């Protein structure tokens, strides 16, 4: 993770710490989901559907925590040459908001199934509100991506030009030192 040319940075250590915490929580939630599921198999007093729903909820939250950990770890520890911070932030936000939207839609569908099984049609306002909120979140993400597209394209183009000029400078320096070597001999 740390290259020989990169100095010790406080923000990198803190980012790795938070990334590790998020990954640990994700693993804990996966373990909890399997524990709930298998306890439902051996405990016939409680409906199996309840255990399945709890397990799915825990797995969805675990996925969101995992994505958050990956995003935090990548944003603050990445040393990708030529990659713009704008491009990286756009990609991370898109992936995280997509995961959150999937989690929200699955949660709403689970609530709809649960309320229909328990004949609580009056409570269907809650999952519908979750679906509307998810639609607004996706629309907001689309607006964000549309508004930042030009900035990212311009920034990426300038990064590519800088990267190409740096590699051309290194290439010409290597050629001139190689040409100077035989002249000395």
From TrEMBL:
This is Uncharacterized protein. Keywords: Membrane, Transmembrane, Transmembrane helix. The keyword Membrane applies. The chain crosses the membrane at residues 12-35, 55-72, 93-113, 125-147.
């Amino acid at each position: 993770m740390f290259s020989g040319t990169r100095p010790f940075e406080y923000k990198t250590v803190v980012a790795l710490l938070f990334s590790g915490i998020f990954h640990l929580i994700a693993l804990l939630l996966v373990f909890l989901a399997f524990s709930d599921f298998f306890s439902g198999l051996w405990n016939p007093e409680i409906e199996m559907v309840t255990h399945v729903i709890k397990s799915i909820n825990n797995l969805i939250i675990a996925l969101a925590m995992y994505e958050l950990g990956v995003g935090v770890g990548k944003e603050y520890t990445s040393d990708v040459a030529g990659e713009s911070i704008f491009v990286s932030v756009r990609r991370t936000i898109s992936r995280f908001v997509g995961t959150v939207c999937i989690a929200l839609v699955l949660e709403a569908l689970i609530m709809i199934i649960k309320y229909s099984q328990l004949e609580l049609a009056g409570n269907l306002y809650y999952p519908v509100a979750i679906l509307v909120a998810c639609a607004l979140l996706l629309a907001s993400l689309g607006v964000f991506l549309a508004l930042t597209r030009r900035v990212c394209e311009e920034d990426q183009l300038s990064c590519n030009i800088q990267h190409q000029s740096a590699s051309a400078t290194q290439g010409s320096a290597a050629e001139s030192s190689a040409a100077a070597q035989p002249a000395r001999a």
